[in-house]
Amino acid sequence: MNHDMSILSLVANASLLVQAVMAGLLAISIASWTVIFRKLFQIRAAQAATDRFEVEFWSGGDLTELYRRSSAATGDQGPLARIFESGMREFNKTRQQKPGDTHAMLEAARRAMRAGYQREMDGLESQLAFLASAGSVSPYIGLFGTVWGIMNSFRGLANVKQATLAAVAPGIAEALVATAIGLFAAIPAVVAYNRFSYDIERLSNRFDTFVEEFSNILQRQAR
After folding, report:
1. Mean per-residue pLDDT pooled into runs of 10, the chain (223 residues)
2. pTM for the predicted model, two decimal places
């Protein structure tokens, strides 16, 4: 008896539970790729905006004028610009409320920048947990489908007088497709998670360094 061993045929002939596992893994894979492309564009935009703002900030221009332009801009100025705006806004507000109180001005600006820093990091790190979960769980889901399919194949041999490789091979092949789909869903998610985590960590270091350097500049201006 000839068996059609194509992937589509194996999926179509798999048991209902194994098909459900495959469908779930396919949904995870689609969701993972959606997150991957979304985070890729988000992180690249954040990197480019950070580069532009750093060049402008360290060009030696007036910080008050930079703050005015950044606040008046209609487009997205990027995460570093927003951190700068929050610190400068709070610094100016505290200087009007408590003139001459250098410590209060610096503490207010630092707190505002730290809060802005945390908001930006939360936005950049959003949905990374999904990629981590997809990468770690998908192989086990696929393995579950494989084990279940192989169990069904061997149970079917109980009613056969003579077990041959030709009889058991299609069932095992159907089951192994679940593992393959699980790996197909997991590998891109793991690679993307590691890459995005590295890029976000570099941005975090740049933000943190900026907060410290800008605080030093404000300290000199407050005197």
Report:
1. 55 72 90 96 95 90 86 83 93 86 89 94 94 94 84 69 60 78 92 96 95 89 68
2. 0.83
Question: What's the burial of 172, exposed, middle or buried (CB within 10 Å: 0-12/13-18/19+)?
Answer: middle
The pLDDT assigned to 4 comes to 52
Number of structural domains the chain divides into? 1
In a domain, 2, yes or no: no
Placement of tokens 């500049």 in the chain: 217
Residue 172 belongs to what domain range? 7-222
Both tokens of 34, joined, read 């959606």
Q: For residue 95, is it within any domain?
A: yes
Q: What are phi and psi of 126, to 5 degrees?
A: -60, 140
Residue 164 lies in a domain: yes
Contact 127, 196 (CB under 8 A): no
Identify whether 46 is part of a domain. yes
Using CA of residue 22, residue 24, residue 25, residue 27, what is the dihedral sign? positive
Q: Where are the alpha helices (H) located in 58-127, listed in sequence order?
A: 63-72, 79-97, 102-125
